[in-house]
Write a structure and sequence with these properties.
Layout lengths: L135 E5 L2 E3 L7 E12 L2 E12 L10 E3 L10 E9 L8 E6 L6 E8 L2 E4 L2 H4 L4 E9 L1
Length: about 260
């Protein structure tokens, strides 16, 4: 009887795993085997990167499910409220329960005649209140003069004004006692206003007058020119409008109760 000997096949050598965790499947070339109870290098002992600029990364190991990134240092808010959006450069973060400086304790600016953009980096509260313009009131002494500034005498000279910002309103009650040495043919002028008028002409109205030397049915008013120290009286005595009132038409005993307004 003959004996047949069958050669025992050569086994592939067992080796430590050398798998690579990559971004795509690829066939390896090593002619080795791994035991079923081998340990694969999936995680290493390197701490995960801190938060920062996004990057694909080059590590060939995976993070553990319960890994923790070192966060960016939390800092006090230093946000600026501006007129445009802009990226900051600070590498700090804010906690979700941070308090942002949006309002300060400075009172809002008072109302003013001119608008200003402002330079504050905080916003006003919804229920803020501006200090309004404080009205100024007082008295002045009105006068009636000729072209040269000469005036007569008076039985009454009363003037009252109120000023809010650059707006002035006034009332006048004046009675001329004597024309004195005023020139009769000169234009009757109103002087003594409490403030110099600003640009532009502003009319004044005569609500009551008596003892004037004008034609019945005519009435008197006037206007103040910007920058002038005196106003001009006029008489509505023509079909085309008004003409300058003369000192003679004022006459001794003439009274004017009038009011007007202008801007400084």
């Amino acid at each position: 009887m003959s004996i047949v000997v069958t050669p025992i096949p050569r086994l592939i050598d067992l080796a430590a795993p050398a798998f690579t965790l990559g971004t795509a499947n690829a066939a390896g070339s090593a002619e080795t085997a791994i035991a079923s109870d081998s340990t694969l290098l999936v995680f290493d002992t390197t701490l995960p990167a801190a938060t920062g600029t996004a990057a694909v990364g080059t590590a060939t190991t995976a993070p553990r499910r319960d890994h923790v990134h070192a966060g960016t240092t939390l800092a006090a808010p230093a946000l600026t409220l501006g007129t445009v959006n802009s990226a900051g450069s600070a590498s700090t973060a804010l906690a979700t329960d941070s308090t942002l400086l949006a309002f300060d304790t400075t009172g809002p600016a008072a109302v003013a005649a001119s608008a200003v953009v402002g330079s504050a980096t905080t916003a006003p509260r919804r229920d803020h209140v501006h200090a309004g313009l404080v009205g100024e009131s007082g008295t002045f002494t009105p006068i009636i003069t000729d072209n040269g500034g000469t005036q007569g005498t008076y039985t009454r000279q009363v003037g009252n004004y109120t000023k809010n910002g650059n707006s002035v309103s006034y009332t006048i009650d004046v009675i001329v006692n004597s024309l004195g040495s005023m020139t009769g043919g000169d234009t009757a002028r109103l002087g003594g206003l409490p403030f110099v008028p600003g640009s532009g002409d502003k009319a004044f109205a005569v609500g009551y007058s008596t003892s004037l030397a004008i034609t019945a049915g005519n009435y008197v008013s006037g206007w103040v020119s910007g920058g002038a120290t005196t106003g001009v009286f006029v008489v509505w005595d023509a079909t085309t409008g008004a003409t300058a009132m003369t000192i003679t038409q004022v006459s001794a005993g003439g009274q004017f109760k009038m009011f007007g307004a202008y801007n400084t």
